[in-house]
Structures are given as structure tokens and as C-alpha cells.
Amino acid sequence: MANIIAQTEHRFSDLSAEAVYAAWLDPAAVRVWMQRNLERTGSSARITEIAIDSRVGGRYRFSDIDDEGQESPAWGYYRELVPGRRIVFTWFVEPAEETEDNSTVTLELRPDGAGCVATMTHEMDAQWADYIEPTAKAWKGMLESIEETQGKERK
């Protein structure tokens, strides 16, 4: 079965490609924008773990917990890191997905005036075809949350 792709794009008006790249790999920044993203979606969950080993082959793990105590982890490995330009990483939320190893996210950054354009592409198993739009929307929300939180920190 062929893989499918969810894709979204976001223009950062005043955050450089280098700043957006750094926001994906700095644990403190990730904690802030991920919490903001949860709030944007109406969730009362809170971030409980951000662990990042930002090197090719390095592992990351993000986790939050809701009011009922339900943990929602996501983890993966960095496959490619090109400062200010590109991050490729796997994305898993279930152990079986890690075993299958067919969920890959690519963040492409290109300068655009005082800011940049970010394109997120998530390639995943075709069994998740019904989730293309929600997945693209989720990545878009993360990019918007980066702009909301990192843009404020710069001002």
C-alpha cells in the first residue's frame, strides 16, 4: 500500500528561517509553543515532557497529560538536520508505528523578505487517509503557535 501525504504551509512575517528552525529544536521554545498549541485547540492538557537530542539519529519525545490523567506522547528520530533550512524526523504516537517506521515529517524553510515560508509535509501509511486534513491542520496549528509565541519573545 502506498503512503499518503498531508501538507501545509505557513508564512512567518517576521521570524527568520533560522529562528523557526531553532524553535523546533530548543526544548524551552518547544514547551512554550506546544502549550500554546494545546490552548489554541481548546485543550486543557498541559505539557509534561519535552526531550530533544538534536542530532541526526537523535531521539525526541513530547508528551502532555489531560485533566483525566490521559497521557498523549509523540516521539521519533531526527533523520536530517540542515540548519535554517530543513528538519526531517519520524513521528510516532503508538509503539506499532515505530515498528512500522512509515511516518516521516519534513519541515522545509525558505527565506521570504524579513520572514520565511515553512512547508510541513507528513508522509504516512495509507491506512491514515481519513486523517490527511486533520493532520495538515494540526501541523498548521503548530506553525501558527510558533509564530504567536516566538514572535512575542522577540518584541
Automatic annotation (TrEMBL):
Residues 15-149 form the Activator of Hsp90 ATPase homologue 1/2-like C-terminal domain. InterPro entries: ASHA1/2-like_C, START-like_dom_sf. Pfam families: AHSA1. Signal peptide: none annotated. It comes from the Bacteria. Belongs to the AHA1 family. This is Activator of Hsp90 ATPase homologue 1/2-like C-terminal domain-containing protein.
